[in-house]
Specification:
UDP-n-acetylglucosamine1-carboxyvinyl-transferase, Chain, 2 domains, binds uridine-diphosphate-N-acetylglucosamine, 30% helix, 26 strands
């Protein structure tokens, strides 16, 4: 899918099922390296980032294949410790293979991991934390070399609750000698999912979901079946699509317990939102209202991954909304493209943008430059008058199984090319 063409101005109606979570599936795929025998991941999303991770695992000698609804991973054939492929450079979450591989083999060689172009995204917290567990790092021809003669548990304090660094410590710690106490850990629900998977494999972990996680290492792990939870970011994207485009929808299986800040923001914009056993119902206001400030923060705060989508809605809200981004620098690249659609956005530096709500966005040809910004442009297209074409949709495919199909299911007039 190169581009998406959207005839905007159609209110959304009906229901859509929310796919499995990208950010839960990726570290769990890395964790499967640590288990003996086969793991089967059900509800694993069929997205480009998962395909890239599968190809990395295969390069390392694992057997990975889809069987029915499940993805089967067997790491008994793991033979290689070197990751040099394109997939590493294009995908930051390949970084969690660092913790897993160093735990399993004691040695890793990898390219510097890539990911979305949203700021510098250094990896110092990962290196510092793993270093405390006995991993020694060096660099050779731009590649990162990691080795540990003896991986040992440690008391680690993260100065910032990095999601990836928390995952890497957990992954390294489950096979390390002794106990690891991780303080200042990230509390994102995807870390809970990773720990549930590892515990189902036999790991001993307590405190996940809090800032202090304790991992008792050294137990051998056995592959297991695991159901990947629904994606709260995809659910939030469709929620804001409804708030912006109008209508009423049911987001089937949306993980509302993990979406408090997002649901509250939608309500502040005038939507009626209620959760039930089936998922989340959303009823949009006639026009979204402005919100004084939407400020991203580590979980349970408003997720940075939904900042661009919220910005698209705020662009056509009734009044001014200040959006503050506190997690990533350079995450307002989408503002320029939204400007082509008639949005009046005043970028006030790397941390904030003031959206001066316009009556209507208008259709335009715009380019996705990264995953969530791309999804935000598609949402803006649903809200706009006239036709919008979003190009470079390969970025959107990194995280959404089929955005066009899902929007069509909600009655939108969307085609892909
Ligand atoms: C994960 C998510 C991503 C989400 C982000 C924040 C996955 C696959 N990706 O990314 O979708 O947007 O959490 O919720 O789960 N940082 C450092 N040094 C480090 C590590 C991070 O300075 O060593 C900084 C980053 O540059 C960024 C901030 O910390 O400014 C947050 O990064 P982190 O929580 O690590 O995000 P990711 O794990 O990369």
């Amino acid at each position: 899918m190169d581009s998406i063409r959207i005839q905007g101005g159609v209110a959304l109606q009906g229901k859509v099922r929310i796919q499995g979570s990208k950010n839960a599936a990726l570290p769990i795929l890395a964790a499967a390296l640590l288990a003996e025998g086969q793991s089967v991941l059900e509800n694993c999303p069929r997205i480009a980032d998962v395909y890239a991770m599968i190809s990395l695992l295969k390069d390392l000698g694992c057997s990975v294949n889809w069987q029915g609804k499940g993805l089967c991973i067997d790491a008994s054939g793991l033979c290689c410790r070197e990751m040099g492929s394109e997939a590493v450079r294009g995908m930051r979450s390949s970084l969690c293979l660092l913790g897993a591989l160093v735990g399993r083999c004691g040695q890793v060689v990898m390219e510097h991991p890539g990911g979305c172009v949203i700021g510098q995204r250094p990896i110092d917290l990962h290196l510092e934390a793993l270093g405390q567990m006995g991993v020694v790092f060096s660099e050779e021809d731009g590649r990162l070399l990691a080795s540990a003669d003896r991986l040992r548990g440690a008391r680690i304090l993260l100065p910032f609750p990095s999601v990836g660094a928390t995952e890497n410590v957990i992954l390294a710690a489950v096979l390390a000698e002794g106990e690891t106490l991780l303080e200042g850990a990230a509390k994102e629900p995807e870390i809970g999912a990773l720990c549930r998977y590892l515990k189902a494999c036999g790991a001993q972990i307590t405190g996940e979901g809090t800032g202090q996680i304790c991992i008792r290492g050294g137990r051998s792990l056995k592959g297991t079946e695991f159901f990947v939870p629904a994606d709260r970011i995809v659910a939030g994207t469709y929620l804001f699509a409804c708030v912006g485009a109008g209508g009423s929808v049911l987001l089937e299986e949306a993980p509302w317990q993990e979406m408090e800040a997002v649901l509250r923001t939608a309500e502040d914009m005038g939507a009626k939102v209620w959760a039930s056993r089936e998922g989340v119902y959303v009823q949009a206001p006639a026009r979204p209202g402005a919100v004084e400030c939407i400020c991203t923060a580590p979980y349970p705060g408003f997720p940075t991954d939904l900042q661009s989508v919220a910005l698209a809605v705020a662009a056509a809200a009734d009044g001014d909304t200040l959006i503050r981004e506190t997690i990533f620098e350079d995450r307002f690249r989408v503002a320029e493209e939204l400007g082509r659609m008639g949005a009046r956005l005043e970028v006030q530096g790397p941390e904030s943008v003031l959206a001066r709500g316009v009556e209507h966005l208008k259709g335009a040809r715009v380019e996705a430059r990264e995953l969530r910004g791309g999804a935000a442009l598609a949402v803006a297209g649903l809200m706009a008058r006239g036709e919008t074409t979003v190009t470079q949709c390969k970025y959107i495919e990194r995280g959404y199984e089929n955005l066009c199909r899902d929007f069509r299911e909600l009655g939108a007039r969307v085609t892909s090319a």
